[in-house]
Design goal:
The protein is an alpha/beta fold and about 350 residues long. About 20% of the residues lie in helices and about 25% in strands.
Amino acid sequence: MKQMTPSSDPTKASSTVASISRLPSGVTWEGGFRLLGTPIGFSSSKGAALSFVSHVDEVLPRAGARVLVSPPTSAAIGAQQRRLDALSLGFDRSIRLGRMEIRIFPAGLGPGSAQLLVSYRGRRILFTSGFRATKPLAAPDISYPECDLLLLDTEPADPKPPAPTRVASQIWDWARQAEAVDGVSLIVCGNRAAALDLAWILRDYPEPIRVSRALYDMFGRMKRIGYATVPMRRLEARWPDRGIVIHGSTGWLEKVVPRRTVYVGPGREVPAWAVEGFRLGESEDRSGILAYVQRIGAREVAIGPRCDAGLEKMLLKGGISPYRVSHPIQIPLPFEPSSLSGV
């Protein structure tokens, strides 16, 4: 059985000259960046805007939009099925947009999760909307690219989320216990990143694993680009007698057979319908964010709407003076906070 390996990065052949040439021709960009909640949008007077989608659980733009993604993220979200004009950029490639050079780096949050680095006239601006410094299961380790300005818009996980490797044995134990009682273990995932981690954790489970149609399609797309997981069957109308069922929705929970349901995903509280919960797919904890900012050497830090007052105070206590940007705001180049009124 071909297994998904955390160190594998099937992106080298995924960013082609043909795809890069689809960028608008003759773009000149004298402005800056627009922080739109989480994604950064590149816009110009010529061609459509290009938005950055940083990971598989990002809020996606409407159909027809042009997006910059890593190949695994494009596969996981089903960019073609969602009719998104996706430019897939591998972690080993860079592109030029006007005078800007653009690269993406692994964020460690899950397969395909990425940070965006833009170089412009010798200055570097880095954007991240979520990352995990703890060892991921099914994704490359986080990178720490140096930058002059960090645009940080991530909701801190507090209390500190466990590394996926720490809860793997607990999930196995629960699945076996639930199966012994009800015959079927039902696991509901709070997001796609958690579902991908869960597939890696249960890759050697001896009983059949069935997944909902949306997750089945996602795993199929990921497998086609090299992220092979344990063989899975699609959940059909008839409820199975034994095995594991992984689902991404809670709307039908009252109608299903198993009495023991577990929740795997982000969030501090275990949902009322779950007998137990395991936290996966979280962003980094507060102290991890501070260590990350210090390690990349950012001289300036702009924090977005999802960064709460607690994170702001922690950065100040750590000797970092961030300035807050709202939704939306233009971040001009060069990156002095005093120039926020315009270029």
